[in-house]
Specification:
By secondary structure, this protein is α+β, with helices and mostly antiparallel strands. It has helices spanning 5-23, 29-62; strands at 65-76, 81-92, 95-108, 111-116. The chain starts with a helix and ends with a strand.
Amino acid sequence: MPTPPRALAVAATTLVTVWLAGCGGAPSESDMKAALERQTQAQVDGAGRLFGHTGAGVMKDMLPEILSLKKIGCQADGEKAYRCDVELEVRQFGLTNKSPTQLRFVQGSEGWTVVGP
């Protein structure tokens, strides 16, 4: 029994909507955590280029380790940019701290990047 054209159109529209939702919008928690980890690694790499292996080690010890990130909400803040409220749990200098903060994320060709607090 053939499917009516209207049912096919509804199914196609639903599939396109689901696909587009995955291609745009605010960053996910995993996107945000990956962006923060890339930023931290870039700082460690930069210190390594300037001061060698020891400098990279010192920088790594100084920067906070991200233990968890919980997305509270995001608002559009320009083209492919979002200002997001998150709850970050970090460890730094042996101390663990969990607190809300706001970060700005911009989507580029390499994925999401943290561009400011």
